[in-house]
Backbone:
């Protein structure tokens, strides 16, 4: 079986990818800043990264940070992967990184280009936002008496386990270049998603629709981060909420 390194292998997505690949019989190494024996900060690189990649055939790059540093991390990973003779680099990106001028998206697009120009066999999968991310955001916003939302913004959340299954499938296959985008089953407005979250958690909060400004907000309002033509996900946001909070959010 294949020896595979999963960066960010303890994170929301990476841990599911790791579990699936191990269940399929592959030797999987987990790399993160804290996971032993491959505790490495990709932004710094170093000898620990070379040791983690020794004998690895495929890398699934899930590590990311909204606080910055993704491009440096990817450059260090790619350089070490070349030295190790890695044959396949799989990268998870976000739908709309080439259409929405948002800082984090620009960084993800820059990493895509590094991967494409790496000289390695590569695969890039773009997915829409995970259910987990929305729940985390709504939970933080609901700490105030009023839950503020950017006005007239749609979303298409997807179940993280489904994305993990697709990444695992791509990892054990041949390099595919840009794989088809992966979106959740429904395009919804943020208000309906927030109301579902509040019902599932038993909270009562009035929603405050906040009109924002700027090119990124206009792109989000226009649906630049959506992929309705690739609504291949099956799990809905309500199903995710039921599995997480134990109560079905009524319509």
Residues:
């Amino acid at each position: 079986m294949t020896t595979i390194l999963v960066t960010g292998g303890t994170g929301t997505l990476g841990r599911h990818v790791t579990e699936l690949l191990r269940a399929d019989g592959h030797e999987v190494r987990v790399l993160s800043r804290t996971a032993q024996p491959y505790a490495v900060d990709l932004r710094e690189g170093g000898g620990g990264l070379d040791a983690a990649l020794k004998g690895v055939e495929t890398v699934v790059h899930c590590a990311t940070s909204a606080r910055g540093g993704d491009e440096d991390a990817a450059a260090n990973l790619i350089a070490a992967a070349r030295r190790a003779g890695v044959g396949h680099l799989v990268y998870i990106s976000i739908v709309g990184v080439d259409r929405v001028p948002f800082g984090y998206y620009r960084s993800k697009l820059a990493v895509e280009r590094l991967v494409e120009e790496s000289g390695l066999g590569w695969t890039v999968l773009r997915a829409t936002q995970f259910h987990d991310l929305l729940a985390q955001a709504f939970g933080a916003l609901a700490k105030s008496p009023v839950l503020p939302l950017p006005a007239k913004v749609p979303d298409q959340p997807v179940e993280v386990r489904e994305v993990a299954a697709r990444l695992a499938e791509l990892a054990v296959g041949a390099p595919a270049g840009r794989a088809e985008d992966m979106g959740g089953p429904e395009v919804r407005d943020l208000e309906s998603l927030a109301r579902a979250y509040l019902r599932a958690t038993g909270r009562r909060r009035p929603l405050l629709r906040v009109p924002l400004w700027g090119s990124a907000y206009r792109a989000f309002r226009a649906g630049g981060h959506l992929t309705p033509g690739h609504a291949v996900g099956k799990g809905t946001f309500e199903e995710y909420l039921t599995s997480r909070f134990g109560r079905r959010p009524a319509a």
About this structure: The first helix runs from residue 14 to 23. The domain at 3-245 is CATH 3.40.50.720 (Rossmann fold). The chain is about 40% helix and 15% strand.
